[in-house]
Write a structure and sequence with these properties.
The protein has about 290 residues and is of the alpha/beta class. It has 12 helices and 8 strands. Strands 3-2-1-4-5-6-7-8 form an 8-stranded mixed beta sheet, with helices on both faces. Helix 1 packs across helix 3, helix 2 runs antiparallel to helix 3 and helix 5 runs parallel beside helix 6. Pathway: Lipid metabolism; butanoate metabolism.
Length: about 290
């Protein structure tokens, strides 16, 4: 592996997007000792990210789960910027966690191909879009891959590293090692497939759960109870969909169906109807269950 494209050459990480995933990925990097930049087009979003991360760190210290010195060092390692040009110019590794729209991501990666140093690896946190869709825009497709974290990124250990046909072995090795240094347990997906590993496994369970409920075979409560008490799942599929957000579940289904065209991947009508009613799960107060 060349020095230019190795873990030893990574000191500054740029995270694009200050939303829930972006800010938690950035904090994970800062806690691991990397100088970390959070970039977003919204100053309000950056301010909210700073406030939340400072509050999270203070809470962990108060509970005795994080030493004050480590919290201070991590917060000091974080910087915030609305200027992509300057942020990218100093990045050794970029993790894009922007809105899940291909046109937005393509535009970002096109800019990164010009702005980021020649050695920088460019990764997308997308859970639905393979990096091959944005790789060509960078002019350096061998240095592009998916680095998919799970929500909440500060807690969840799994990171799916997905290579496309042109991703180099060096890029894969460096990305896997970076995930380990962030305290994660990376898994490698050798070729792109909609849903990667985790979402495909969860999606299969969710589809079967919806079939059982839609067919009147069992109630959503009893299906969830079975998943917990027979399979050992921490929560049932309907409670999990409510936690993730039914709008997110519907979006993933739409994106997967657009990719595969398979009837089995078509969005579920019950989920779509709940979304249309504004019942998105926990975040809206109601979904399959009522949280009010």
């Amino acid at each position: 592996m060349s020095v230019e494209n190795s873990i030893e050459n990574i000191s500054t990480i740029l995270v694009i997007g200050a939303g829930t995933m972006g800010r938690q990925i950035a904090m994970s990097a800062a806690l691991a000792g990397f100088s970390t930049i959070i970039q977003d087009i919204s100053q309000e979003g950056l301010t909210a990210a700073r406030t939340e991360l400072e509050g999270w760190a203070a809470s962990r210290v108060a509970k005795g789960k994080l030493e004050q010195g480590a919290a201070t060092a991590a917060l000091d390692a974080l910087s915030y910027s609305t200027d992509l040009d300057s942020a990218a110019a100093n990045a050794d590794f970029v993790i894009e966690a922007a809105t899940e729209r291909l046109d937005i991501k393509t535009a970002i990666f096109e800019k990164l191909g010009v702005l980021a140093p020649a050695h920088a690896i460019l990764a997308t946190n997308s859970s639905t879009l393979g990096s091959s869709k944005v790789a060509a825009a960078t002019g350096r497709p061998t240095q592009v891959c998916n680095m998919h974290f799970f929500n909440p990124a500060l807690v969840m250990k799994c990171v799916e590293v997905v290579r496309h046909e042109e991703t180099s072995d060096e890029t894969v090795a460096t990305t896997m090692e970076l995930a380990r240094r962030l305290g994660k347990e990376p898994v490698l997906i050798n070729r792109e497939i909609p849903g990667f590993i985790a979402n495909r496994l969860v999606g299969a369970i969710q589809r079967e759960a919806l079939f059982l409920a839609d067919s009147g075979i069992a109630s959503i409560e009893d299906i969830d109870t079975t998943a917990r008490t027979a399979l050992g799942h921490p929560m049932g599929p309907f409670a999990l969909m409510d936690m993730v957000g039914l709008d997110v579940i519907d979006f993933i289904a739409q994106a997967t169906h657009a990719e595969t065209g398979a009837d089995t991947d078509a969005p579920n009508q019950r989920v779509a109807a709940l979304v249309a009613e504004g019942k998105l799960g926990r975040k809206s107060g109601a979904g399959f269950y009522d949280y009010k």
